[in-house]
């Protein structure tokens, strides 16, 4: 019997050594192959703990290589075999819950985690107890229950501070940092990450074991907008992940690389990383993570203005998100992006419907930044539909949300300060304890205590000053916001007055010049000139009709009356009228006509208004002597109208804003030239009503080149 027992002990020791070796294999495929080679010996073993550890390690490796169903199967079998041993049964339950969690079966996962936690609380295995807490906190993260997760970990850290050894703390710090990031406590999250990295460095862990911390720190840099630093860290984690062969980790690193490079503006490189991330997640058979990577790709396609591709892809993401029960983070992000795409495609009703869905969910789960983004979009949608009353109501709600968010951020800053003070107090207590145990340093202890107390007093005074300053700054900010919104109300009521008054001057001037030309026999008093004069008077009449509805500012809008317009006749009128307007200001005038089709559908009155406004701007701001050029062209899809002038130009950073209401470029705003930044805003509005596009760029002539593209047909 002695020899039998000795033989069994030797065999068990050999199997334990082989299992330890399997843990050192970072490539999951190599690990699976090795574990399968010792599977028979493990099955014949009488050691239940060895069997459970073997099964958990094999299941983890199978799941990380996309074989989740097989992983669940072997764990469920082990759950039945381990029923007689409560601790091993709980350990198996935790592993089963983790695999279910990885495959997004959150309800079943939570049941197994809670059952295991109830068991391990009664045991002496504190490490397993801590693991259960950590797994449940991660589950709360993926189901949007961030504050529950934070409170769970904080209670564990507080209740078991003396028992939490350095090897147990890193994972808790990692989990609470992820949760804090979701409630916008970025600084506090970064503090926990740095603590984790400090512990891992002191434990002399290898690169694979520290990769998760590097990844987490990179996420924090991304959250605070330092995308270049984030990219450098994510590249390090990706290289480590490639060596380990962990497809899931590779996918996450690639997804983050794609997102941060997208933020830096290199969309082609970002797209390559996004496609690699999708392939990695597909190989690991993680539908939810594939959806996240596709959502990221949709952001890139949107930035590249490939809206139809982005729409199809984002619709697929939303379908996956709707199936992922409890995954509100993915659902809200995907619906919001889908709403943005519909908004850019002018599908305003669909965009509004989706945005309201997101707002409802964001309110339910207290996603403050999401609420702000959605309400801002709804305000823009209402303004785009010219429903200014509703737009103003959304703007008012947006103001309240931003004030509430600012106030909440102040509280978070104070919480961060308080946490820093508590950390400082703990450091002081530790230092005092160390000095108290050294009788030979009694005098040094007293002097250091005194210095530390002075330091603490100074820190407390500094914190009080900071708190006072933050509250004062917050009050000033709120007062400034109130004043700004009062100004906005007045601007909204007067905007339409300014627009129409601005446009009345151009046709009146043209009509006056036409009359003077006829009066002094410069132009004959024939039917053709009288008809042109009548057109100008008609333009003025249209503007006066717009002015008649000024009492209903919120509902007022410019309208276009599209009709089939002969381009030959239209261009001939322009070629005759425009020199009279330009040459009197001593500018050189160029007119190029490349039209090769008969007609397009436009509102000729409004298009003449557009041309007049553009030329008026060019005349006002072009240095004399100068040149103004007008070019008409037709492509396969559109009718193009191009107006460009000579110096001065506008800097590239200001060009995208020149069509905004009341905007004047800084280098022009200080000139003596009159104008309030309304003319180009009206031009943009008229072009939009024609479903056309307008853009501005620096001209090769030294000034500004404005290109308008209008569709041939409505």
Automatic annotation (TrEMBL):
Broad enzyme group: transferase
InterPro entries (UniProt xref): BphY/WalK/GraS-like, HATPase_C_sf, HATPase_dom, His_kinase_dom, HisK_dim/P_dom, HisK_dim/P_sf, Sig_transdc_His_kin-like_C, TPR-like_helical_dom_sf
Reactions the enzyme catalyzes: ATP + protein L-histidine = ADP + protein N-phospho-L-histidine
Entry-linked Pfam families: HATPase_c, TPR_12, TPR_8
TPR repeats: 211-244
Keywords annotated in UniProt: Kinase, Membrane, Phosphoprotein, TPR repeat, Transferase, Transmembrane, Transmembrane helix, Two-component regulatory system
Record-annotated membrane-spanning stretches: 451-470
Gene3D superfamilies, alphabetized: 1.10.287.130, Histidine kinase-like ATPase, C-terminal domain (3.30.565.10), Tetratricopeptide repeat domain (1.25.40.10)
Enzyme Commission identifier(s): 2.7.13.3
Domain Histidine kinase: 499-714
Keyword hit for Nucleotidyltransferase: no
Protein name: histidine kinase
